[in-house]
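can u pls check wat happens w/ NDP
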Amino acid sequence: MDKKHIVIIGLGGVGGYFGFKINQVNGSEKNFTTTFVARGQTYKTVKQNGLRLLSSEHINTVTHPNAICETISKIATPDLVLICVKEYDLEHVCQQLSEVITPNTIVLPIMNGVDITDRIRTKLPHSTILPSCVYVTSHIKETGVIEQKGFPGKLIFSEDQEHLDTNLDWVLNVLKTSEINFEFKTNAQTDIWTKFMFVASFGLITAKYNSSIGAVCTDKKQKEEAIKIMQEISLIADLKKIHLNDYTIENLFEKAATFPPDTATSLQLDINSGKDNNELELFAGAIINYGKIYHVNTPCTAKIYNDLLHIIN
Ligand SMILES: NC(=O)C1=CN([C@@H]2O[C@H](COP(=O)(O)OP(=O)(O)OC[C@H]3O[C@@H](n4cnc5c(N)ncnc54)[C@H](OP(=O)(O)O)[C@@H]3O)[C@@H](O)[C@H]2O)C=CC1
Ligand SMILES: CC(C)(CO)C(=O)C(=O)O
């Protein structure tokens, strides 16, 4: 049987972490073929030196893929594509992917956001797309070097309700042999919205105060603002018939307490480092838009959205 071809697009915090794990096990067992897609200096550095992951989970810190491409157009017959980019790059990635995928390619986005699967489906209408969410604390330490801190990253994903006949056994097997901490579900919508509630509230507040997950848990003002954002999201989720439990907000603060207290969020890092792009629209923009659609007032999110626009501009 032909070896499966696994492609990881984006070697940042998330793609670098999960891509490293998948590739490292492949390095020793060679059960499948891996291609990394990276651009610019990341492409050059990883091509030359391999991908480095600094993590307490791995003693060997370097891994070399079977192939590395600078553009998606160079990928041939992928069986599984992990999309690990920021949301502002998603449209472009999907556009390019539409030229190279086969009818059997499975797409697994590993990103934040509640509408990622729908957005990919508009560009790749015939593909199997696995809805997911992820908890991990990892970032680009320097070009080609990813640093991961705290507990092992956790991926939660589900089958595609529109492609229930797609065989996912081999995908689950790849994740298992790669020692990736994952949960596979029939439906992951509740998990995706719970994660959204977590990252949108902690992301927006840490970005506004340039603080940390620990500070949002302990500072009275930051915690109150985070809770208000969570309540706004919870009202929207209710109207969308996404069933969050009565203790979700409490549980999310318990979850936050399991992160190293000084953990920064990805939104905070992007906004406070003055990057040209950030995921403010994915978080605050989405809450405000859903609020308009479902007639839910979102004053706290709107205020922080405006505060952050001032910081950015
Ligand atoms: N980091 C974290 O701890 C967590 C992040 N997330 C979410 O995961 C997603 C990914 O985030 P993260 O990994 O942190 O983002 P990063 O910015 O660290 O990495 C994204 C990478 O994708 C690359 N990229 C973008 N477009 C392309 C392309 N067309 N071809 C090749 N490479 C491309 C970027 O390249 P370049 O460097 O050239 O811009 C960048 O290196 C986001 O939605 C984020 O919110 C979720 C949980 C935790
Ligand atoms: C909050 C965190 C670190 C949890 O995984 C995250 O998703 C992000 O910063 O994007």
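The chain has a mean pLDDT of 96.
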